[in-house]
Amino acid sequence: MRATLMYGAGDVRVEEIADPVLQQPTDAIVRVVRTCVCGSDLHPYHNVPAAEDGTQMGHEFLGVVEDLGPEVTGLKKGDLAVASFAFQDNTCDFCREGVQASCRHGGFFNTAQAEFVRVPQAAGTLVKLPVGEDSALLPSLLTLADVYGTGYHAAKRADVNPRTTVTVIGDGAVGLLAVLSARQLGAERIILMGRHKARTDLGREFGATDVVAERGEEGIARVRELTGGDGTHTVLEAVGYQEAYEQALGVVRAGGVISRVGVPQYDEGPIGWGMFGRNLTLTGGPAPVRAYIDQLLPDVLDGRVEPGKVFDRTVSLDEVPDGYRAMDRREALKVLVRP
Ligand SMILES: [Zn+2]
What we know:
Layout: E1 2-8, E2 11-16, E3 28-36, H1 42-47, E4 55-56, E5 61-68, E6 80-83, E7 86-87, H2 93-96, E8 107-108, E9 116-119, H3 122-125, E10 126-128, H4 138-142, H5 147-157, E11 166-169, H6 173-184, E12 190-193, H7 197-206, E13 210-212, H8 216-226, E14 232-237, H9 242-251, E15 252-260, H10 273-276, E16 281-284, H11 289-301, E17 313-316, H12 320-328, E18 335-338
Parallel strand pairs: 11-12, 11-14, 12-13, 14-15, 15-16, 17-18
Antiparallel strand pairs: 1-2, 1-4, 3-5, 3-9, 3-18, 5-6, 6-10, 7-8
The protein binds zinc ion.
C-alpha cells in the first residue's frame, strides 16, 4: 500500500510499504476513506531529526472495515467507522473513568495517512457511522477522530457552561472547534484570540462573540479591557507554546480555569504566586475523544453543527507532502486527504 512517511524535518514522502495485517484477535484492518493532516503533525515537521528510515504519520481517519480479528465485537466487514486518535479497549477502569487516552491497553495511532490502517482494540476504538462512503458529512465526521473531540475536551475540562465567560487561544482547527464546543455547552461570551481573519471569521460563525488579534501583553490588555479588567472564567489553550500558556495566565479571571489541549512544547513555566495567588486551576491533556463521539455524533448527523468547515483544502494521498507544506505556511487551515 502507499503510506506517508516522515524522514526528517520538512521531509515527508509517500511510499509503497507492506500492507498491515491482523496481529491480535482484537485487531481490525480498515481501508482509509478520509484522513487528514493535524496541527500536531507540524511539530515533528519542524524539528524531527533526519533518519535513514521514515516514520509513518497520521492519527485521524475514518474508513471501511476490511478484516476483523475473532474477538472484535460490534462491527462487521463493510462497516464505515471513525476511529479515535488514541486506541483503547473502552472497558478498563481508566476508560470507564473517562480518561481513555490512558487506557491500560491503549496507545496512539501514527499510521493513518495511508491506504490501510491496523486498528488495535477495534471494538473499543471504532465507532460505526450510519452513512455511506459518499456522504457529504464525511469531513465533519472525521473531526470526531481528534480536533472536534479535542476542542470539546478543552471546554469540558474547564466546565464551560452558560454562566462562564470563555477565552479561546489559537485559531487552528482545535481552537475553532473549542469555540464551537463552548457555544454548544451554553457559553454566551466567547473571546477568540487569533490573527488570521479567514479563520477568526469561521470562529465567529462557530460562536465567538469577540476576536482579539493582538498577542502577548497587548492581547492580554485587550481581553481584560473586554471583561471589565478581570479576564474570563475559563481559558481554552489550543496552541501548545509557552507564550500561549503565559497569555492564558494573563487573561484568566481569579478563581478561573486554564484548560490546555495544545500539546505543550515546553516543560517549565510559571506556577508560582501568579497562579497560586489567584486560586487558578490548570487542567487539560490528550482528549479521550472516544468518550465524546457518541454525544457529539447526533448534531453532526443532522447538520446542526458543521465542524468539517475547518477543512479548507483536499488532497490525494500522493499530495500529502503538499498538504504539510500548505499547513506549515498557513496557506491551509486543515488539509483533508482522500486516499
Ligand atoms: Zn481502557
